[in-house]
Amino acid sequence: MIRFLILTFRTAGKKNLSADELVSKLEEGSNKWCKASIQVLCTLWSEHGASVHAQQKVHSMLSTCQLVDVQWKLAMAVSSDTCRSLNSPYVSLLLKVLEPSGQISQRSFEMTIPQFQNFHKQLKEMAAIMETV
Hints:
24% strand; 3-stranded antiparallel sheet; alpha+beta
């Protein structure tokens, strides 16, 4: 019963239901609810529904993806289809990311050295800000 109520409140929070909408959804789902139970759920939702909705909103924002692994390498582009003598260094990054669905996906990209230095600077700034929290 507790799991059912938690699931019901989470779903109502995600959908931003009002107390009346929650009651009507519960009554649609089953006609076995007694009036006293419906009244208690309505009162609880009226008092705490906004905080449940806010919590679900934060949870959905935070559950985007999680960085699992970073692999990088420094390489040299010697030539390309359009340029015989390129001789340009670059950094290749491979990110392993845990999706909210539970699957791990890989994302790779390449950056020039100045782009990588800017990326590194931004990461250091983020780390410094996170240490203050």
